[in-house]
């Protein structure tokens, strides 16, 4: 199920295999076995990637719920056993060199701690923290901070993602007003309104609903939708990122539950703060 969900979010077997730290053939075989068990195709395959079939779309929603429940079980069992385990939620918005530095520093300082990582899509900016699935999250603000403690780690300038053949794609910079007549990607209903508003450039917008980074990029590629991304993130050659001159930066933050007495959380925050200063 985790393999299937990853392929569904990436819409590409190669990218999914990279994200899962495995080669592509066993991933393809696992998905084919799942399709055999379900008795129907889950993906429509092409040379450029995959799309979900109607059956695949239904299974994706059920699989996410199932995996969330499995994560809750694991958290509760670990807590009952008193294991020295720290579960970290990470927003699946692409590679961040700060995370690699943090992982190396934390392994050196806390070699006996079992670290578990839960990567989430763009629909949950707290990465499972509010649901009790993680102890601490590495994510991006803004979002509702009620009952949470937030530590700012870095500010990233933001750009607009456009098709490479878009008339605006070769500009050195753009302002939000120049994009007012464009369609923007949307997150599903019920998403944190501060989070949605930020990624819509501070104004109500209309456009296709997406959940994952790759879905955002595909919406730009196929529909000419406006997408936003922190500068420095790699995008396919068919797309371009132009700096937004009047867009507030995207804050990389560590967040944990207010008043959490867990010493592992405190040590993680201290290590994260130091790692992101480099």
Features:
3-stranded antiparallel beta sheet; 22% strand
Report how far apart the termini are.
37 Å
Sum up the overall morphology in one term.
globular
Give the neighbour order of strands across the main sheet: 4-3-5-10-6
SSE succession: HHHEEHEHEEEEHHEEEH
* Class computed from helices, strands and strand pairing: alpha+beta
Computed CA radius of gyration, to the nearest angstrom: 19 Å
How confident is the prediction overall: mean pLDDT? 89
Helix fraction bin: 25-40%
Low-confidence stretches: none
Instruction: State the major sheet.
Output: 5 strands, mixed
Architecture overview:
- The structure is a single chain.
- By secondary structure, this protein is of the alpha+beta class.
- It contains eight helices and ten strands.
- It has helices at residues 2-10, 13-19, 24-38, 54-81, 97-109, 193-199, 213-223, 263-277, and strands at 43-46, 49-52, 85-91, 114-120, 136-141, 148-156, 158-163, 227-230, 239-243, 250-257.
- The mean pLDDT is 89.
Give a topology summary.
Elements: H1 2-10, H2 13-19, H3 24-38, E1 43-46, E2 49-52, H4 54-81, E3 85-91, H5 97-109, E4 114-120, E5 136-141, E6 148-156, E7 158-163, H6 193-199, H7 213-223, E8 227-230, E9 239-243, E10 250-257, H8 263-277
Helix pairs in contact: 1-2, 1-4, 5-8
């Amino acid at each position: 199920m985790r393999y299937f969900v990853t392929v569904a979010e990436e819409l590409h077997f190669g990218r999914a295999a990279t994200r899962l730290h495995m080669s592509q053939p066993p991933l393809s075989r696992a998905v084919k076995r799942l399709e055999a068990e379900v008795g129907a195709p889950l993906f429509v395959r092409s040379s450029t990637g995959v799309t979900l079939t109607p059956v695949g779309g239904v299974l994706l929603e059920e699989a996410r719920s199932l995996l969330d429940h499995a994560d809750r079980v694991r958290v509760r069992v670990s807590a009952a056993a008193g294991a020295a385990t720290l579960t970290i939620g990470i927003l699946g918005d692409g590679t961040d060199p700060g995370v690699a530095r943090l992982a190396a520093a934390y392994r050196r300082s806390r070699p006996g701690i079992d670290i578990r990582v839960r990567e989430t899509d763009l629909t949950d900016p707290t990465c499972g923290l509010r649901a009790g699935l993680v102890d601490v999250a590495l994510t991006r603000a803004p979002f509702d901070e009620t009952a949470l403690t937030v530590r700012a780690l870095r500010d990233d300038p933001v750009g607009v993602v456009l098709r490479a053949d878009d008339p605006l794609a070769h500009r050195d910079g753009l302002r939000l007003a120049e994009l007012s007549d464009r369609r923007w990607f949307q997150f599903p209903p019920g998403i944190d309104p501060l989070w949605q508003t930020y990624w819509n450039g501070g104004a109500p917008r209309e456009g296709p609903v997406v959940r994952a980074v790759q879905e955002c990029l595909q919406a730009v590629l196929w529909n000419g939708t406006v997408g936003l991304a922190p500068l420095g993130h790699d995008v396919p050659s068919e797309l371009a990122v132009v700096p937004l001159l009047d867009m507030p930066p995207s804050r990389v933050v560590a967040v944990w539950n207010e008043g959490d007495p867990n010493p592992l959380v405190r040590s993680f925050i201290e290590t994260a703060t130091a790692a992101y200063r480099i």
